[in-house]
Specification:
Layout (H helix, E strand, L loop, with lengths): L5 H7 L2 H10 L5 H5 L5 H29 L10 H36 L7 H23 L24 H29 L12 H32 L13 H35 L6 H14 L15 H13 L1 H15 L8 H23 L2 H7 L3 H31 L1 E2 L2 H27 L16 H19 L8 E2 L48
Antiparallel strand pairs: 1-2
Length: 552
């Protein structure tokens, strides 16, 4: 991918030069040193590991929620505890898992792909992680102390006001959400500066790998979306603590103001999670087809289009609030329009796969699973973009099914594929291929058994956000099927931890890529040392069009 002169190669491999730079970039050891490390690979790994820990904890809460709904009139959880678990599950999955893990992958991989030694602001990088970690610990601490938020992960007012939620739970929620948004903003700013200012010489924008483009678009979306939820949570905490009246109708406030501010962030957030996953998929497809990606320019433009159009969809969540019909029709059009760039991505990937000698390794299976699940989620998204249909299913399990098909299909499946794909880069070891394939098939089957029946439950009128239902409604049979699938999928995802680094590489981890990743060539000389690059490479070819050998 990079073509260096003999002099550049000599400098790159100079022991004296490498020793001096390694000393400069050395990370302190021991427990005190853990708090002073600022290396981008260390911080990126911490984001990823911490995010998956929160993912597992939120999954446990999901299992408990499903246990409560497994049959009619169950008393496994009290209503108050169910509301806390429901709120914590959604909050952790959306705020403390999906975005931080995507940013963690970007923090780790982007500097390697663009050929730089570290992120633009290493200490700011570490600061963002610690803010994130503190927020997560405090949030789960509130659950252990019985003070967890219980107004839903969306925290609608007036339910979240002090009249209906008098405890400390909502106060903790608003404070910790501000923490996580500040953390996300710091990472976004770093990624933008790193990509735009610290690329290797010769790597112009039209030579950047698809994942770098995806990380750049994600970062700009975070910069424009996150301030809205910071403002909304600040206004809510002021209403609760100092008796301002931003959301109180009797004092001239507007409850819908909360929904506008929250969903102006909330719907772009779905695409903030999705966009880096699209970059992961393009990277994996290139490797396991052994050919360049089809339609590089179209792929990049579609990612940028998704970033723009996603900010015109937030009223999609408010079709039942009584807003003017003419205004809502524009958001219906935008909701349908965003399917166009998403479809462009799908067809570019299909063209890349068409006629190729595909290697069906574990990362590629997760990508193919993404195709199936995300397309279903996209089709149901077009359905609920219709105001009459959305009015019928808005507060039912149909929305729960759609939401999980989009986010799990669009985020978790690509994340699992990327985890297998880049695991050798992270650890110098390979995961078990046989175990990985078992993980994929059990998760794929279990997921569809869990969430596909929820479409039918929603069409039959089962409301979401309720902790029980009566036997006369006839929903118990499908709920039992849902719980069976959840246990299968959840058990296999938790069993993903069993696919540890069980197979050491036949060569040192610094020798290159066992997956033959085409976009890490600028940084694959040194992967396990603190030093990332002893000299900057020079990119003389568009990396998107370099021919590749089929991986063995």
């Amino acid at each position: 991918m990079t073509h260096q002169t003999a002099r550049e190669q000599e400098l790159y491999d100079s022991p004296k030069e490498t020793e001096q730079l390694t000393r400069t970039w050395h990370s302190p050891r021991g427990f005190p040193g853990w708090f002073t490390q600022v290396n981008q690979r260390m911080i990126g790994r911490r984001f990823i590991i911490t995010g998956f820990i929160f993912f597992l904890l939120a999954g446990v809460l999901g299992l408990l929620i499903r246990a409560q709904l497994a049959g009619p009139e169950q008393h496994f959880l009290a209503p108050e505890l169910y509301n806390q678990f429901f709120t914590m599950h959604g909050t952790v999955m959306m705020f403390f898992f999906a975005i931080p893990v995507m940013e963690g992958f970007a923090i780790y991989v982007v500097p390697l792909m663009v050929g730089t030694r570290d992120m633009a602001f290493p200490r700011l990088n570490a600061f963002g992680y610690y803010i994130y970690l503190i927020g997560g610990i405090v949030l789960f601490g509130s659950l252990l102390l019985g003070m967890a938020p219980d107004a839903g992960w969306f925290n609608y007012v007036p339910l979240a006001g002090k009249e209906y939620s008098p405890g400390y739970g909502v106060d903790i929620w608003t404070t910790m959400i501000t923490f996580i948004e500040v953390s996300a903003l710091t990472a976004a700013v770093e990624l933008i500066v790193t990509i735009l200012r610290l690329r290797a010489p010769g790597m112009s924008l039209n030579r950047m790998p698809p994942f770098v483009w995806a990380a750049l678009v994600m970062s700009f979306m975070i910069v424009f979306a996150m301030p809205a939820v910071i403002v909304s949570s600040t206004l809510l905490i002021l209403d609760r603590l100092v008796d301002t009246q931003f959301f109180l109708v009797e004092s001239g406030g507007q409850p819908l103001l909360w929904q506008h501010l929250f969903w102006f962030f909330g719907h772009p957030e779905v695409y903030i999670i999705l966009v880096p996953a699209l970059g992961m998929i393009s990277t994996i497809i290139i490797t396991f087809t052994g050919r360049p990606i089809f339609g590089y320019t179209a792929l990049v433009l579609s990612v940028v289009s998704i970033g723009f159009v996603s900010f015109g969809l937030w009223v999609h969540h408010m079709f039942t609030t009584g807003l003017p019909q003419l205004g809502m029709s524009f958001f219906t059009a935008a909701s349908v329009t965003i399917a166009i760039p998403s479809g462009v991505q799908i067809f570019c990937w299909i063209a890349s796969l068409w006629g190729a000698k595909i290697r069906f390794a574990t990362p590629m299976l997760w990508v193919l699973g993404f195709f199936a699940i995300f397309v279903i989620g996209g089709l149901t998204g077009v359905m609920i973009a219709s105001i009459p249909f959305d009015t019928q299913v808005h507060d039912t399990f149909f929305l729960v099914a759609h939401f999980h098909y989009v986010l799990i299909g669009g985020a978790v499946f690509p994340l699992m594929g990327a985890l297998y794909y880049w695991w050798p880069k992270f650890t110098g070891r390979l995961m078990s291929e046989a175990g990985g394939k078992w993980s994929f098939w059990l998760a794929f089957i279990g997921f569809n058994i869990t969430f596909f029946p929820m479409h039918q439950l929603g069409l039959e009128g089962m409301p979401r956000r309720v902790y029980t239902y009566t036997a006369e409604m006839g929903w118990g049979g499908l709920e039992f099927v849902v719980d069976t699938g959840f246990l299968r999928a959840g058990g296999r995802v938790y069993g993903h931890a069993d696919q540890r680094s069980v197979e050491p590489l036949s060569r040192p981890a610094s020798g290159g890529e066992p997956m033959e990743c085409p976009y890490l060539g600028v940084g694959d000389r040194v992967t396990t040392a603190c030093l990332q690059l002893s000299s900057y490479p020079y990119c003389r070819k568009p990396v998107a069009f370099v021919g590749l050998a089929v991986p063995r």
